[in-house]
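Predict structure. Chain length: 120.
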Amino acid sequence: QVQLVESGGGLVQPGGSLRLSCAASGTIFRINTMGWYRQAPGKQRELVAGISGGRTNYADSVKGRFTISRDSVKNTVSLQMQSLKPEDTAVYYCNAALQLRPGGYEYDYWGQGTQVTVSS
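Prediction complete.
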């Protein structure tokens, strides 16, 4: 079974930094894409950052402040968050688009989420 586990969330003051990590485990043939999403209370889940084949993309609201990185050997993805703002407060979810076997379908897997609260 495939599992994604996030860590690193917490409470931080505005202007502070935080690093989120996600580890994928289980029987996986290939992870095509990994990314981070977030969902604030009363709002829709949105893509924060994604990485695939060395290419990265970011939501406009976090460009220049957040950095996504991936270790393909360890099957981990991290999100370095800097200059945090109150509006960054949300539950952050790790996502992986992967194949379980050669030639198989691509499936999305999600972590349980980790709370990030930016407040003074």
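Summary: The CA atoms of residues 64 and 82 lie 9 Å apart.
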